[in-house]
Amino acid sequence: MFIKDLFSQKKTVISFEIFPPKKDTSIDSIYKTIDALAPLNPDYISVTYGAGGSTSKNSTVEIASIIKNKYNIEALAHLTCIASTKEDINIILQQLKENNIQNILALRGDFPQDPDFKFPNPLHFTHAIDLVQHIKKDNYFSVAGTCYPEGHIEAKSMKDDIVYLKRKVDAGTDFLITQLFFDNNLFYSFKEKTDIIGIDVPIEVGVMPVINSNQIRRIASLCGAHIPEKFVKILDRYIDNKEALKDAGIAYATEQIIDLISSGVSGIHIYTMNNPEVAEKIVHNISSIVTALNNSNGEK
Ligand code: FAD
């Protein structure tokens, strides 16, 4: 099924993101993660693809297939384009089809650290929009895309970024998933801008529960997300206490999610970091809210 259809069936879609095991770890280790996530009844699970600009072949298709065909949970396979040739992309699309996977998150991808990396490259798609257009030539697939409530780190301005986003949606992107953020007001102001420009596909909000200090460093260097004062206080206070930081991070993410759901967002995409325990706690914290909302007949 197409994930996009879930947004008209449910008031709030709840989904998870996982990543393939590291190269030196057996793919079997992913079963433990999915075994723990499956009973939480996510609407779908997404699987990252070579995140961080890695060009190595990876097991995204295989894991998406496990989710879809062994666990009967809808799968969203991430696919990046700048580091793969158009020919490689076609091979992956064929593999996705053979595995009955109809939903793809079409991404440009991060720049590889390889100093010989050539961009743009005529053998590769340049932007996510080019990949969306290519995938959408085949109506077997439904396509999701990303968006950045604080602006993409390379964008000259928020205005430019939203204009490109509108083009990406007009090219056939069926729904969007946001980059993580820690201040919901940034999302509400972004949503006003996307409404004004006429972006009318569902926008699912990506939420990252921060549970350790490594994540904070990575977030700051990769996407430059603004860390609000309220969150800085938590980090300062509990940075040296693993358990306290974990509990505080889960509580912060829960509060963020309840506010977003109450404000009528289309869905919540939890970046699980392959840590089912954290996803479990958050889903438990919000379960009655999501159930009440999805069972009610009232307006959004
Ligand atoms: P695009 O939508 O192509 O945008 C990238 C930049 O180009 C933006 O600044 C945009 O304003 C600009 N732009 C867009 N179109 C044009 C145009 N036509 N002309 C000029 N400029 C343009 N990375 C991975 O490697 N693997 C993953 O699995 C992965 N999953 C992700 C999941 C989510 C939900 C998010 C938010 C990010 C993910 N990323 C992943 C990171 C992503 O690859 C990077 O953020 C990357 O830098 C941009 O990819 P994009 O698809 O958003 O790019």
Keyphrases for this structure?
alpha/beta; TIM Barrel; binds flavin-adenine dinucleotide; 14% strand; 300 residues; single chain; 8-stranded parallel beta barrel
Briefly summarize what is shown.
Keywords: Amino-acid biosynthesis, FAD, Flavoprotein, Methionine biosynthesis, NAD, Oxidoreductase. Its EC number is 1.5.1.54. The chain is α/β, with parallel strands linked by helices and 300 residues long.
User: Which small-molecule species are bound to the chains here?
Assistant: flavin-adenine dinucleotide
Number of domains: 1
Structural class: alpha/beta
CATH class: Alpha Beta
Number of strands: 8
- Biggest β-sheet: strands ordered side by side in the sheet: 1-2-3-4-5-6-7-8
Taking all Cα atoms into account, the compactness measure Rg is 19 Å
Architecture overview:
- The chain has 300 residues and is α/β, with parallel strands linked by helices.
- It has one domain (3-294): TIM Barrel (Alpha-Beta Barrel).
- It contains eleven helices and eight strands.
- It has helices at 6-9, 29-37, 60-70, 86-98, 128-135, 158-170, 184-197, 213-222, 229-238, 242-262, 276-295; strands spanning 13-18, 44-47, 74-80, 103-107, 142-147, 175-178, 203-207, 267-271.
- The chain has an eight-stranded parallel barrel with strand order 1-2-3-4-5-6-7-8, surrounded by four helices.
- Strand 5 (142-147), helix 6 and strand 6 (175-178) form a beta-alpha-beta unit.
- Helix 9 (229-238) runs antiparallel to helix 10 (242-262) and helix 10 (242-262) runs parallel beside helix 11 (276-295).
- The protein is globular, with a radius of gyration of 19 Å.
- The model has no long low-confidence stretch (mean pLDDT 93).
- The protein binds flavin-adenine dinucleotide.
- Flavin-adenine dinucleotide (FAD) binds next to strand 3, helix 5 and helix 6.
